[in-house]
Amino acid sequence: MPEQLWLPGLEAPPTPTDGLFFAVYPDANTAAGIAKFAQQLCEHACVRSGGRNGVRSKPIAANRLHVTLRHLGNFAGGLPADVVEAAKRAAAAVSMAPFTVEFDAVASFAKRPRVGPAVLVGEHGVRGLQALHDALEVRLRDDGIEPDERFTPHLTLAYGMPWIERRAAEPACWNVREFALMHSLLGRTRHIVLARWPLVGQS
């Protein structure tokens, strides 16, 4: 295959193939309920749009529903071993008690009037996620990973959704007892668990 150039005389940067992130997953029963809600949202969006305005709503499968705690990067040709090991060391140093998370609203992560992700969000019920993210961020920084404090606790329901005003939704609630380091095979809708850590610290 001929090489593609992005600037005269320069090779195009390699296409990322692998992602690395920390995540929290709902239990199976909760995930099934959230997936059903996501499907209903997509069906409603399709009816409302009549297929117009580029609406191609696609709900996330129940086994892939998750909250991303911290994205560590996308990479070409596999995951760098040093980043994976640093992430594992940081995660092992986190001490936090289990907690309950509750998402009680649905919102859009798109800019009006564009289509984009529909997500579950919350207020008081997501403070545990914020605390876990912050604790993990401190340990990552200690292990030399550049800080990224941008974090809005959310759970993506579907992609290709029309913009919606934030509104209340039936609460999605579960007990968070562990978090995981995930390997994402980009473009292949597959996530691989690299390691899990239980939450066993004192509240």
Descriptive overview:
The active site is at 66 (proton donor), 154 (proton acceptor). A motif (HXTX 1) lies at residues 66-69. Hydrolyzes RNA 2',3'-cyclic phosphodiester to an RNA 2'-phosphomonoester. InterPro entries: Cyclic_Pdiesterase, RNA_CPDase. A motif (HXTX 2) lies at residues 154-157. With 203 residues, the protein is an alpha+beta fold. It has one domain: Alpha-Beta Complex (Cyclic Phosphodiesterase, Chain: A). The chain is 25% helix and 36% strand. It has 3 helices and 11 strands; from the N terminus they run βββαββαββαββββ. The protein has a 5-stranded antiparallel β-sheet with strand order 4-8-7-6-9. A hairpin with a 7-residue loop joins β6 and β7. The longest helix is centred in the first third of the chain and has 22 residues, at 28-49.
Please give a quick description of this structure.
By secondary structure, this protein is α+β, with helices and mostly antiparallel strands. Helix content is 25%, strand content 36%.
Give the tags:
203 residues; alpha+beta; Cyclic Phosphodiesterase, Chain: A; five-stranded antiparallel beta sheet; four-stranded antiparallel beta sheet; 11 strands; 25% helix; 36% strand; globular; disordered N terminus; RNA_CPDase; EC 3.1.4.58; Cyclic_Pdiesterase; hydrolase; RNA 2',3'-cyclic phosphodiesterase
